[in-house]
Amino acid sequence: MAKMKAAVISKYGRDQKLSLVDIDVPVCGACDALVEIHAASLNPIDFKIRDGKIRFIRSYSFPWIMGHDLAGVVTAVGSKVTRFKVGDKVFSRPRNGRTGSLAQFIAVNENELALMPKNLSFEEAASIPLVGLTSWQALFDTAHMKSGDHVFIQAGSGGVGSFAVQLAKQFGAYVITTTSSRNVEFVRGLGADEVIDYTSKKFEDVLQNVDIVFDTLGGEALYKSFQVLRPGGWVVSISGDPDQRLAQDMGLNFFKREVLRLVGRKANKLAAKARAHYRFIFMHSSGSQLAQIAQLIEAGKIKPIIDKVFSFEESQLAVEYLEQGRSRGKVVIKIR
Question: I want to staple 194 with a disulfide (CB 3.0 to 4.6 A). Which of 117, 141, 176, 234 is the partner?
Answer without folding.
Answer: 176
